[in-house]
Amino acid sequence: MAETPDLKRRNFLLGGFAAEPSRPPVAVIGQSCFTFQGIACMSCRDACPTGAVRFELAVGGARPRIIADACTGCGDCSQACPANAMSLSNIERVS
Ligand code: SF4
Ligand code: SF4
Fold first, then answer.
1. N or C end of the chain: which has fewer CB within 10 A?
2. Which residues are registered as beta bridge partners of 65?
């Protein structure tokens, strides 16, 4: 939630600073993803409402990659993944 001007002023006067707004978790792809076994699957891409799952060519076939800045942490990809390979992480936010 955004700070009101009064709260910002109070934090400043008390020597505190606004806390970093918390960022949503980001999807992370695990090794159980079917594409690592050469099995074609794009369920996560089809389920993602923001286009945060992109497929890139790799040895053995196309593999998914998460565009962290486009990921809202909604978890739809995780629900759709038949390999249970998608998880949400609060730590990794590297594009
Ligand atoms: S968590 Fe939501 S926004 Fe992020 S990649 Fe999965 S479906 Fe897309
Ligand atoms: S839905 Fe799961 S198994 Fe399929 S490509 Fe995405 S992460 Fe891999």
1. N
2. 54
| Per-residue pLDDT tens over the stretch 39-58 | 999 999 999 999 999 999 98
Give every CB contact of residue 86 below 8 A, 6+ residues apart in sequence.
Answer: 27, 28, 29, 30, 44, 77, 78
pLDDT in tens, 56-77: 998 888 999 999 999 999 999 9
- Which pair of structure tokens corresponds to residue 1? 């939630």
Report which protein residue has its CA nearest ligand 2's atom 6: 44
Domain 23-89 has CATH 3.30.70.3270: yes
Locate the domains of the chain by residue range. 23-89
